[in-house]
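ok, trying the design again with the full structure, not the truncated one.
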């Protein structure tokens, strides 16, 4: 079977914590342009589709090489899980182009540091597995979740993992956090489960610097700091 993969970048226009987040400037480009370019440079896709309810975002997507031939007709609110929006866009794409796809890859536009190599490696891992869904994740590092606690109004902690409070850090196992960088699935499984977290999903680790997912201004500043850490030498040498 010839592989026909589609990348879907869900980029609605109504973000609130960072207004117009998907097209906010990130080192000279709209934020979502980094995801579009990573998808195109990966060479993995028959289609790179930006799914949006917003005309300006659609126009921006097209100017950076993605397809945006239709607007999203539903699931553009604050409450719908992103998997639903991606699934709806998949069904629109199938109808619009008269195509079916062997693999669907969801790339959140809020992950500008995930690159073409990350995408290729994720797809290679998925192709070698029999899992219906694969969700990217990163390993917790200096923020050790084994020591996490809730605080009440007086500052008194309740540990989430009390058995780990007195365990040396080197004796604690690795823990992982999902990130929206690269989610991969089989279209028919997604239609049946309506979520990348459907039955049989697995996690696939990527480096934490590729995993930064921007929700608010603090996240944006962190992403900028990581980008400068990675590219600062290039800027100095330019």
């Amino acid at each position: 079977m010839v592989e026909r993969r589609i990348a879907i970048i869900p980029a609605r226009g109504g973000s609130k914590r960072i207004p117009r987040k998907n097209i906010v400037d990130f080192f000279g480009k709209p934020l979502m342009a980094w995801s579009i370019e990573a998808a195109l440079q990966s060479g993995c896709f028959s289609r790179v589709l930006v799914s949006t309810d917003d005309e300006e975002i659609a126009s921006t997507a097209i100017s950076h090489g993605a397809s945006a031939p239709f607007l999203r007709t539903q699931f553009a609110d604050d409450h719908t899980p992103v998997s639903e929006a991606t699934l709806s866009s998949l069904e629109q794409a199938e109808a619009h182009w008269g195509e079916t796809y062997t693999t669907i890859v969801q790339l959140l536009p809020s992950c500008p540091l995930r690159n073409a190599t990350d995408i290729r490696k994720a797809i290679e891992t998925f192709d070698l597995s029999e899992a219906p869904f694969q969700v990217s994740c990163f390993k917790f590092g200096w923020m050790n979740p084994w020591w996490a606690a809730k605080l009440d109004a007086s500052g008194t902690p309740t540990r989430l993992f009390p058995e780990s409070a007195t365990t040396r850090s080197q004796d604690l196992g690795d823990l992982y956090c999902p990130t929206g960088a690269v989610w991969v699935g089989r279209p028919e499984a997604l239609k049946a489960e309506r979520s990348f977290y459907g039955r049989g999903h697995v996690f696939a680790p990527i480096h934490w610097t590729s995993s930064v997912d921007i929700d608010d201004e603090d996240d944006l500043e962190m992403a900028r700091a990581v980008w400068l850490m990675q590219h600062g030498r290039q800027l100095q040498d330019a």
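Keeping the full-length input from now on. The chain has a mean pLDDT of 93.
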